Amino acid sequence: MSGSYYVPATSKWPVLGSLALGTMMIGTGMVLVHERGTVIMLIGLLAVIAVMALWFREVVHESRSGLYDAQMDRSFRWGMGWFIFSEVMFFAAFFGALFYVRMFAVPWLGGEGTKGATALLWPEFTAHWPLLSPPDSSVSGPAQVFSPWHLPLVNTLILVSSSITLTVAHEALKEGHRKICRNWLAGTVLLGLCFIVIQGVEYYEAYAHYGITLEAGIYGATFFILTGFHGVHVIVGTLILIVMLVRVVRMHFSPQEHFGFEASCWYWHFVDVVWVGLFLFVYVF
Question: In this protein, which residues make up the domain named Heme-copper oxidase subunit III family profile (predicted)?
Fold first, then answer.
């Protein structure tokens, strides 16, 4: 379709996706606030997954039918670029909250800075991070924190390695070496699954032995918000890579036309960079 621009027919997927996502968020809010609404949350989650699968299947079909041209490719690239930028801002907000608490709020409660008068609220409080003993005695802090040199370091090595294996797979695809691409991409998927399992083990240890929970003061809240949202992104990224692996096996991509694969690489590398920030500022410093 040289010289033309493909305009898809009116799509129902944006509306259905919004309804599914809204249902999931309502259920999640009910679970967090009222400790009920799990069924609504799961229905919304399943609906989101179904909409994504059916919507992406339609896009793949359009691409395989030869309906897309260079202009459409640029549209996809701009769309993915803005999506990743929105994800950067999403995590920047949570990192900003962490830095604000650590650099300002906790020192103020300890009597430091221009707002140090807030120390009058809890005069016995000593400012320190990680905050194992919150100033309000009604809030129980964690018993201890994770050493960054055990499971967190292992997960860091896994994700960094996965970026390398994915890059090898991408370069192999661009050179037309489909079998090499398939093998290295399968290795990337395996590393992603290993990360998810280890993160699950860490969460179990956090609740069962370390006393790190969502109710364990500001440290527990920031720990689970940052690592939890990142974990969700790793799960989504791993599912995307599995889909890309299936498409590689089915010979959907060529060395010249494979933006679906390339976009998944962008997303995965972004997730890896976020984890490096988490490792440094949540676990190490």
Answer: 1-285
